[in-house]
């Protein structure tokens, strides 16, 4: 099966986004670094339109700013949307993995007890049953040292807890 030009462009876009986002979040491209669109085209072998779209995505997450007559400026982490799932994944794949894990755990410790309290007060029976079932499956996965299954169930469990809390945020 051959790729259509459209699907090939999405693949290249995703590749360039992955590589450039990872370079920024791992600090291989340090805050304050300036690169031109031409530099990015040459580095990643991508067209101007692909590079511009990638820069727009990174700009929307606060990783870069496109400055006229200057270029693409890498911004410091204080500007980043640190709750964006892609930024979290890039940071987890970098040398800053432990810092990202610590930050995630601190957020969980701050939010989860209140979410669990609200879920206990507000959840529907079907959600309470789902939580009980997931808790049992989590225990089994932990006992069997099945990390992949445990992580998947952990995500499901916490999604149900958060949804059951009745708080849209």
Characterization of the model:
The chain is mostly helical and 169 residues long. Helices cover 67% and strands 6% of the residues. It is built from 7 helices and 3 strands, in the order αβααββαααα. β2 and β3 form a beta hairpin. The protein is elongated, with a radius of gyration of 21 Å.
Keywords for this entry:
single chain; 169 residues; mainly alpha; elongated; disordered N terminus
Percentage of residues in DSSP E strands: 5-15%
Please outline the major beta sheet.
3 strands, antiparallel
Can you tell me the overall shape?
elongated
What is the H/E string? HEHHEEHHHH
Question: What is the rounded distance between the termini?
Answer: 43 Å
- Mean of pLDDT: 90
Unreliable segments of 5+ consecutive residues:
1-9
Rg, alpha carbons: 21 Å
Total number of β-strand segments?
Answer: 3
Secondary structure class reads: mainly alpha
Q: In order across it, which strands form the biggest sheet?
A: 1-3-2
Number of helices: 7
Percent range of helical residues: 55-70%
Short description:
With 169 residues, the protein is mainly alpha-helical. The protein has seven helices and three strands.
List the helices and strands and how they pair.
Elements: H1 5-25, E1 34-35, H2 37-44, H3 48-60, E2 64-67, E3 71-74, H4 85-92, H5 97-122, H6 125-143, H7 147-164
Antiparallel strand pairs: 1-3, 2-3
